[in-house]
Amino acid sequence: MEMTKEPLLGKTLNELIQITADLGLPKFTARQLTDWLYKKQIGSIPEMSNLSKTTRELLAEKFDLGTAAPAKVQVSVDGTKKYLFTTVKHQFIETAMIPDDDRITVCVSSQVGCKMGCLFCMTAKQGFQGQLSAGEIVNQIRSIEEATTVSNIVYMGMGEPFDNLDEVLKSIEILTSDWGFGMSPRRITVSSIGIVPAMTRFLAESEAHLAISLHTPFDEQRKSLMPVQIAYPIAEVVEELRKHDFSGQRRVSFEYILFKGLNDTPIHVKELSRLLNGIKCRINLIRFHPVPGTPLVSPDEETIARFKEQLNDKGIFTSIRASRGQDIYAACGLLSTKEQNLKI
Fold this sequence. Notes:
alpha/beta, 14 strands, DNA polymerase, domain 1, TIM Barrel, 2 domains, 35% helix, elongated, 10-stranded mixed β-sheet
């Protein structure tokens, strides 16, 4: 039986320094490796032409590059793409590419499935199937057609990023370091339902933006939508955020999916204003795209617009996120669930 080789993609500079030291290679080899891994679109170790043949053979004995092309691609009439990747454990994850004028935003997954059980989320219905490595996260950016033109990255795909924090932080290090992709952390946003200890660590160890899934300011109502409210009430999440300074370039935002007759009333506007008072933030309103097995539906456009105006009148900058890719399984988790069901 052939031994599975360890992937190089997803390794940090320090890890590559250790690998090259263990192999008896010069220290500068690690920098050469980061250049090939993160700045050049190569497909195999033998293509690392400034490494000696002996060095390449030595690396290839134990390692492979670790890149993987998408298994499928769906293209929307609006230009949005959904890439389906197969993980090393032969599961499926989704990555979305969203073009918008001069911006190319890539929405990456951090887990296979999710254990958080949010009522409105298709990924939650898959259950938790596994963690993605930093390499598998980075591969979602490196291996798509638009890899060299990506301007923004959002961790808003499948999974809860703060439930896989070590690998998420490692992937952000690769994306933002000068030896990696060299992106500004201000081009990266990580979305979470609000796991407070991990959120605190993320804010201390990263400069990327933070987005919190809010969806309702009321405790019991949020429990019915998001079980995490039992362990980490939104009031506790907000109280922790008050300890951090968001007056500079770093942003905190709140994602708010609107559900007809549930969380779209003036009472919700009033309570949101009270809850978020004193925090420099914005609210992104999101239209709900129905998923199988939930009774929830989106309010009409007039209600959405009115809710936005009422929040703006309260001094909370609020925008409505454009719906994209409606013709290609827009809701996160639909495409991978469909593909997973084909295997059963």
